[in-house]
Design a protein that fits this description.
The complex is a heterodimer. Chain A is α/β, with parallel strands linked by helices. Chain A has helices at residues 46-53, 80-86, 98-101, 108-120, 124-137, 143-148, 156-168, 186-203, 214-220, 247-254; strands at 5-16, 19-31, 35-39, 62-64, 67-70, 73-74, 91-94, 174-178, 206-211, 223-228, 231-237. Chain A has a domain at 1-89 and 217-285: Rossmann fold (3-Layer(aba) Sandwich), CATH 3.40.50. Chain B contains 9 helices and 10 strands. Chain B has helices spanning 46-53, 79-82, 100-110, 116-126, 143-155, 173-190, 201-207, 225-229, 236-244; strands at 4-13, 20-30, 35-40, 60-66, 69-70, 83-86, 161-165, 193-198, 210-215, 218-224. In chain B, strands 6-7-8-3-9-10 form a 6-stranded mixed beta sheet, with helices on both faces. A 4-stranded antiparallel beta sheet of chain B has the order 2-1-4-5, with helices on one face. In chain B, helix 6 links the parallel strand 7 and strand 8 (193-198). Classes of the chains: A alpha/beta, B alpha/beta.
Chain lengths: 285, 252
């Protein structure tokens, strides 16, 4: 499998009053045309990894890596201007909550058309037609009405579909989805995931799917990285996640209540300080 | 005795053409000492039932009884000593400029206790926080610790009923396990009655004996946890919820 993205020894550092803090520590992984899941608790560095790939870490935060290549092109050496043609066009990102990622005072149409014209320079008419086509692709009924609406008129599920439409309109090669369904109800979640899944397959994209929901990642992705304290502690095929061996992964799995297997008590995770100092496992393929 | 009874409960917001019926004709009973779950999607009216019971929504009709006493326009004296609520988001439900000590002592004073010192120590021990946490502010606590403080505050007046509104949905699974264990222990030790709202069916299955499934303000099904675990609900919507909660299936 050819790699779209190749990351080696990625570190994200924030200076604090008590010295530098590494939010991501020496991460190595590759992404092909696959669905790669990143799971872990809040604060484990999964979102920071997604942002670092797009170089969306604000100073004084720093990104360093031995290698961060998109198709052999070094992302870290690009200028901010060149980076803008990568963001949204080659790599897109869907954030957790559509309420905060859509501009509340712009109509949906303006927002979708803006991103398409920025990257392709298409005419307004062509952009409008393309936007309608994308809204259809994410199963929005009556796209003409939605185009004229403001974000507050949309439900959470609709908003997230609009975000997906907006992020995929430029036909990126990589989609980073940061908890795309955590703010949604379970039934809406299924339909949003179906759309992401279909588009990823049809267009041959690489997907980085960041989530805290182990069951969801196990059933949705191809490969999983499990992160703890900024490191990868384990990597495995998604359908083998329930056979994972690392005590942290086991602890997370066992702390979940289950519908099919009643427990009298849930297992509380006992943290081993050695986990946060052990070197990161490489997930390069 | 702290049985909860709901019968023909309607709750609405707005008037005339703007009227939205958030809860329609809901009826169920929670026996004393039991744990009852309300599940459904956002907007299905599950939290609204809790809010109506504690008097946060004035526009309702029907019958709500706590320990056989029907609720009127105003809550009777002693109601808030007996019925307490734990809210969803521990980041929003604690005052950012009040220390844990202030939060607990204010509640205790309001309910007329005088041995505040001892009670604060006991409450913190009950929820598994050491005495070192007493003078901390919310920003010095993790999400799980904050929720423990919110639970301690709810327990301060020695209630017999706890209303739990998505108590763990803002927490990581590992922390969720700790908080759910804590709630289960407290219920056993203090003989509490729980009415719990959650969108997570596995959490409700773990905590409750009976579950009401809500859709668009109506209770579509009340079933025991055994029926839910056996995965054979009577209503198609419940089936749909159960299937969705098991993870992603491409053809679902």
């Amino acid at each position: 499998m050819s790699n779209l993205l190749d990351v080696e020894n990625l570190t994200v550092t924030f200076p604090t009053r008590s010295g530098d803090f590494d939010a991501v520590r020496g991460l190595s992984f590759t992404l092909g045309k696959e669905r790669l899941g990143i799971v872990g608790e809040s604060g484990s560095g999964k979102s920071m990894t997604g942002r670092a790939i797009l170089r969306l870490i604000r100073p004084p935060g720093r990104i360093t890596a031995d290698r961060m290549d998109l198709h052999g092109q070094d992302l870290l050496s690009l200028s901010e201007n060149e980076m803008n043609s990568v963001r949204g066009q080659k790599i897109s990102m869907i954030m957790q909550d559509p309420k905060f990622s859509l501009n509340p005072v712009m109509r949906i149409s303006e927002q979708i058309i803006e991103i398409y014209r920025f990257h392709t320079g298409a005419s307004k008419k062509a952009a409008w037609d393309k936007a309608i086509e994308m809204l259809n692709a994410v199963s929005i009924r009556d796209p003409e009405r939605v185009m004229r609406a403001y974000p507050h008129e949309m439900s959470g599920g609709m908003g997230q579909r609009i975000m997906i439409a907006m992020m995929l309109i430029t036909e990126p090669e990589i989609l980073i989805a940061d908890e795309p369904t955590s703010a949604l109800d379970v039934s809406v979640q299924t339909s949003v995931l179906t759309i992401i899944d279909r588009l990823v397959k049809e267009r041959g994209m690489g997907l980085i799917f960041i989530s805290h929901d182990l069951n969801l990642v196990a059933s949705f992705c191809d490969r999983v990285l499990i992160m703890y304290a900024g490191r990868i502690v384990e990597t495995c095929a998604a359908d083998k996640l329930h056979e994972a061996t690392h005590p942290y992964t086991r602890g997370l799995l066992n702390s979940l209540p289950r519908i099919d297997a009643p427990q009298s008590r849930l297992e509380a995770l006992v943290r081993d300080p050695a986990w946060s100092t052990a070197p990161s496992v490489s997930a390069r393929q | 005795m702290s049985e909860l009874e709901f019968d023909h409960l309607n709750v609405w917001f707005g008037e005339n053409e703007d009227r939205v019926d958030a809860v329609k004709n809901a009826g169920f009973t929670v026996p004393s000492g039991a744990s009852f779950g309300l599940v459904g999607e956002s907007g299905s009216g599950k939290s609204t039932i809790l809010r109506a019971l504690v008097g946060l929504v004035p526009t309702w009709s029907g019958t709500m009884k706590v320990a056989g006493v029907p609720m009127g326009k105003k809550r009777p004296r002693g109601f808030y000593k007996d019925v307490q609520m734990v809210f969803q988001d521990p980041y929003a439900s604690l005052h950012p400029r009040h220390s844990v000590d202030q939060v607990l002592s204010e509640t205790l004073k309001l309910h007329g206790f005088d041995d505040i010192e001892d009670r604060i120590k006991q409450l913190l021990a009950d929820v598994g926080l050491g005495p070192a946490f007493r003078f901390r502010y919310p920003h010095q606590l993790s999400g799980g610790q904050r929720q423990r403080v919110a639970i301690a505050r709810a327990l301060a007046p020695e209630p017999s009923v706890l209303l739990l509104d998505e108590p763990t949905s803002a927490l990581d699974v590992s922390v969720q396990a700790e908080v759910l264990n804590l709630l289960a222990d407290l219920r056993e030790k203090q003989h509490l009655t729980y009415l719990m709202v959650s969108h997570n069916l596995a959490v409700v299955a773990h905590m409750c004996e009976r579950v009401a499934v809500m859709q668009n303000g109506e209770i579509v099904e009340v079933m025991s946890v055994h029926e839910m675990r056996a995965m054979n609900p009577a209503h198609p919507y419940t089936k749909h919820l159960l299937e969705s909660s098991m993870g992603y299936k491409p053809n679902a």
